Structures
1.
Amino acid sequence: MAIEPTDGAMGEADGSLLKNGCKDRVRESKVGRNLAAIAGTYLILVFLTPLAMPTDSIPDLSGRANRFDYATVDEMWSWGNGDNSDYKHAGHDQDANGGPFAWTDLNPIAATVYAIGDLNCHQKHYRSWEINGNQLAVCVRDIGILFGFVVCCLIWRQRGLNRWTVRDTFLSIFSDESIERFYYNDQRMLAMMAIIAIGLGPMAIDGFTQLLSPYESTNLMRILTGFPAGFVGGWIFSAMFSARPHEFENSESVLLPADAKLRMV
């Protein structure tokens, strides 16, 4: 799908049309609200769960990302409860760090919170905050990612527009005047990818520097680099769920900056 900048003024809207060419932006508002609610609810529970649990009931943890390491005390999905102090990038001797832990032993809400953390985060204790003597379910960087995700989704709820393609929908968060130059030269994809790279870059640099050198980041740096990564994550998810071509009669009815028109190639 390419664009053709056109001369002349954009067609007048009659009050029932918005600048995206649809009769309303109910879907875009719902997308932002729902994504913010999902991520925001989990973020709140990450803080409330350890506060509501008995003091010192969650020991120091250190597992692997994208795997269950603390589902059970032994056998399957219990890697974190062993002595993994020789593992290169994660793990420790759990007996020397507060003893075994299994989130399946917790109440359903707490189990869900820590299960999500177990699957998605290394849960290294020295990279995590502690409340009431209990380690949070995710590390500080993930806190920043979640916060950035929620903030972006709330902004999307107010500004995002369905503009047929993901790239045009993604860029709709800006005012039309500020992004016209990307439409004159058809650099919409380049603009979107540059924004994503800027958001993910600081976290990638900080994380890979830790991985490949003796450098150890600080929790302040982790939350500062996690926020923009989460922000662009919320941005791209909002755009993907909001871009709906079937809501238009045809590509010509999509109203774009610089009076550009979508055309099939």
2.
Amino acid sequence: MTETGKRSGPVRRLYDWVLHWAETPYGGPALFVLALAESSFFPIPPDPLLIALCLGAASKSLRFALIATSASVLGGMIGYGIGAGAWDLAEPWFYQYVPGVSPEAFEQVQVQYDRWDFWAIFFAGLTPIPYKVFTLSAGVFSINFGIFVVASVLSRSLRFFVLAGLIFKFGRPIASFIDRYFNLLAWIFGILLLSGFLVIELLL
């Protein structure tokens, strides 16, 4: 996420369209569809809608986090399937409509898999790295499906439940702070968490 004032044009309109669902009775289903789609092709992450829904009904924050997690993991499985079985058809469309991703960058993901496998997926699911790049590439490069699912469940649940839990606990002030600094916070949290796991692994 970025500051609202910095968004313009079609991205801003798409962002506003996503958020408007929080003001309707269909916020929960919309969150499910958005999280599902974002894992394979949709450009806007579900976090803004999750924040808005949690602010509107704080008592349902953990339920909304569960919806986002379940849909995101399921969408990741769909992305994996597309990468494994239909990448020849999806590849031209993917590079045209997913901003900031080049064929060269996509190929570099395989290097990360070769070095980190589980951790590459986990880190992508937790941070602002486009998760769809890793779900599709996991299928393209035939990453172990079990490892992919476990890493996806852990990272996406951690991301969404921490976000919803903070809003449930602290309300609107923390939501404004998260919205403004989400990318930075996600990177810091992801790096610290990964570093902690690596230290434990070295000590054991």
3.
Amino acid sequence: MSLFQHARFLVSAAKPHDFPPERGPELAFAGRSNVGKSSAINALAGRKRLAFFSKTPGRTQTINFFDLGDQARLADLPGYGYATAPQALRASWDALIGGYLTGRRSLAVVVVLMDARRPLTANDRRFLEWLRPVGARRLVLLSKSDKLSRAEGAKVLANTRAALDKAAMTADVMLFSSKNAENVAQARALLESWLREPVGT
């Protein structure tokens, strides 16, 4: 049975000392505000309201943890790059996300969602730079791919892979749509295979 089918909300953490004790491999989801991160989590879990989303960018200010059965955990990180948020609030988000990425030993996989129509923005690249020293697998999901034609999608996919290679940023890349389910099953299978790998592989 899918790990995502066992997903249940555990706790919200506004500061690093609120993080739950580490147990098993952890999968983190990150992305710019309003990129479709919550919709992607819901699609992967086959649920409508496991992860909540808002039409107001930057609303989520905590890391929301979910148990994936007894074997793994999922961490939904606050959206990054919301330019009109107050500087102090943006700084607190940076400290929260940075503290999680650098201090969470159980972090095994990071999924970065980017809008397929505007991938690799300055904020996306900044986040990927944060990930350089993190010893976790990376999957870039180019979300909202349903808004692109097949030819446009293929071009964006190739260009994104080439740009990541040029920047020496190792990551798998997929087109993804929670609306028409493009690559939902494929992404789920890949993530679960990574989470089930023995420690140290």
4.
Amino acid sequence: MFITVNGLQLFYEQTGTGQPLVLVHGNGEDHTIFDEAVEYLKDSYTCFAIDSRNHGKSESSSELHYEQMADDVVAFIEALDLQNVIYYGFSDGGIIGLYVAAKCERIKEMIISGTNLTPQGVKPSLRFLIKAMSVFSRDPKLKLMLDEPHIDVNMLHGITARTLVLAGEKDMVEEEETLQIGANIPGAVTRILPGEGHGSYIVHKTTVAELIDTFIKGGIK
């Protein structure tokens, strides 16, 4: 389905019944990375899997910024009048989630994975690779990762959503950045998952769905 928000068409799939759960993918991906997770979650939640602008079937814009993408999600939630929303974001989707939760009181629970506050929060070897790829491709999505985000921890202090911060032991995000996010969101729970990489438990996996469901039902504290 398509919906127009902020003058741009976003594509999303709606599946299941129950409390609304908005899922946002990472850089260069689309909503289909959550197909297996949605299949697991659909009996308990109404899943809204979104293609971010410049991704998947959604419309593109000439400029691309995380806060702009967050405004799209806030507008999406308001347009559908979703209440008591659970937000899940992976990688870029996690960055977007921090902005969304800071702006939107409708977010009651948030789970984010592999999220950084600054470009320097990505490990140097990965930043070098992204920079090299960006030079050759001129892809605005890669440029976004090199230039942003720049999230002040003071913004995190205003997040009221009950929050779970996840990262893999072998994540591309520096562990100290993950811990900093968890330490600055009031009441947040942080888990570093042994043996996991950046997306190894997320992309086309049910593992992340199990973590989401367990957290929402109070099993991760």
